[in-house]
Write a structure and sequence with these properties.
- This is Glutathione-dependent formaldehyde dehydrogenase.
- One of its GO terms (molecular function) is oxidoreductase activity.
- Its cofactor is Zn(2+).
- Belongs to the zinc-containing alcohol dehydrogenase family.
- This protein is of the alpha/beta class and about 375 residues long.
- The protein contains eleven helices and 17 strands.
- Helix 3 packs across helix 4 and helix 6 packs parallel to helix 8.
- It is globular, with a radius of gyration of 20 Å.
Length: about 375
């Protein structure tokens, strides 16, 4: 089969790989019809994630058609159209029993630190991802969900990570009616978090980024006020001025490890790999939220330490909430919201890329060219 293959930082190719096979009676093989490139894939592309091995295939956001199932699989069958959450999980361990699918104990040798994630290095279990023609899906009775007939492919693929993660970010904020919510990051997750904040009762939503085209999208898609942080000497001070000097009730970090805005943090994280990520957005979040407020973190960080202003968080009495999103837990409510017209996930899609052109797609997304917000990979496209 043809698949995206990692060859080193900033180098990916499309090559022939062995088509995955059933390795366990609970496996399924899925023929991929849509995959996406996620902002967190760029952490891999930029060489920031430990144990990203040459020859590995990325892609934790994908949907497809079931091609083959193992003898124990009962809930899906060949021909079914399925969406696959980015979490690999067993469904039976202590954490899965509590709905903490992203913290499953049985799918990753590094499970004390992180659960299993498709296409996200051997640190996250070493599962090849869906930026390929076919992908092996373990625990096929547990993770995949049937795609409703009324849901189109571009909307469905965004239910495998970006929309649930944004919605989860707003959930973690424990937003109450009238809250002022600040969202750092106007990528897909930040846009979905901002829009979700309204559904949860926010009285005011402010999105912070430095790319004008993304801030335009935040105003159009999420109906948010926007702040370009490069236009202010101190973005935290500016946000304090906008919030009567107190700060926001809730701040969501939807940026993660590669935040711009502080050269020292960027160099020590992205260039020297001395941190698990540049915590610029997280530190701004801690400074921006009011005393006693809540900081929600859904931006991805690596497993190493990061220079976070924990003392300020403690002395302000903040609540810090974070996790990888347990995607499947969000599906019933999100499908209801989509059907009722509160979300059209594919509104954030800006590009469709044939699998053969995925190296150009990574370059475009990484360099923020052509107003790229969310690129979708189509394996069957010529």
């Amino acid at each position: 089969m043809r698949a995206m293959v990692y060859r080193g930082p900033y180098r990916v190719r499309v090559e022939e790989k062995d088509t995955p096979a059933i390795e366990h009676p609970n496996d399924a093989i899925v023929r991929v019809t849509r995959a996406a490139i996620c902002g967190s894939d760029l952490h891999l592309y930029h060489g920031m994630m430990p144990d990203t091995r040459v020859g590995f295939t990325f892609g934790h956001e994908f949907i497809g058609e079931v091609h083959e199932v193992g003898p124990s699989v009962q809930k899906v069958k060949p021909g079914d159209r399925v969406m696959v959450p980015f979490n690999v999980f067993c469904g039976t361990c202590f954490f899965c029993a509590r709905g903490l699918y992203s913290n499953c104990q049985n799918v990753n040798p590094n499970a004390t630190a992180v659960g299993g994630i498709y296409g996200y290095s051997h640190t996250c279990g070493g599962y090849d991802g869906g930026q390929a023609e076919y992908v092996r899906v373990p625990f096929a009775d547990v993770g995949p969900g049937l795609i409703p007939e009324w849901l189109d492919d571009d909307d469905a693929v965004l239910l495998t990570d970006a929309l649930p993660t944004g919605y989860f970010g707003a959930q973690l904020g424990d937003i109450v009616e009238g809250d002022v919510v600040v969202v750092y990051g106007a990528g897909p997750v930040g846009l979905f978090a901002a829009r979700s904040a309204w559904l949860m009762g926010a009285g005011r939503v402010i999105v912070v980024d430095h790319l004008d085209y993304r801030l335009d999208k935040a105003r159009e898609f999420a109906h948010a006020e926007t702040v370009c942080f490069t236009e202010h000497g101190d973005v935290v001070l500016h946000l304090k001025h906008l919030t009567e000097g107190l700060g926001a009730d809730v701040v969501i970090d939807a940026v993660g490890a590669e935040a711009d805005g502080n050269l020292l943090q960027h160099v020590t994280a992205a260039k020297l790999k001395l941190q698990g990520g540049s915590p610029v957005a997280l530190n701004w979040a801690i400074d921006t939220v009011r005393k006693g407020g809540t900081v929600s973190v859904v931006g991805a960080y690596g497993p190493l330490f990061s220079a976070v202003k924990f003392g300020d968080a403690m002395n302000k009495g903040l609540t810090l909430r974070m996790n990888q999103c347990p995607v499947k837990r969000q599906w019933p409510r999100l499908l209801e919201h989509i059907r009722n017209g509160y979300f059209k996930p594919s509104d954030v899609v800006t590009h469709h890329i044939p699998l053969e052109h995925i190296p150009e797609g990574y370059h475009m997304f990484s360099a923020k060219l052509d107003n790229c917000i969310k690129p979708i990979v189509v394996p069957s496209a010529a």
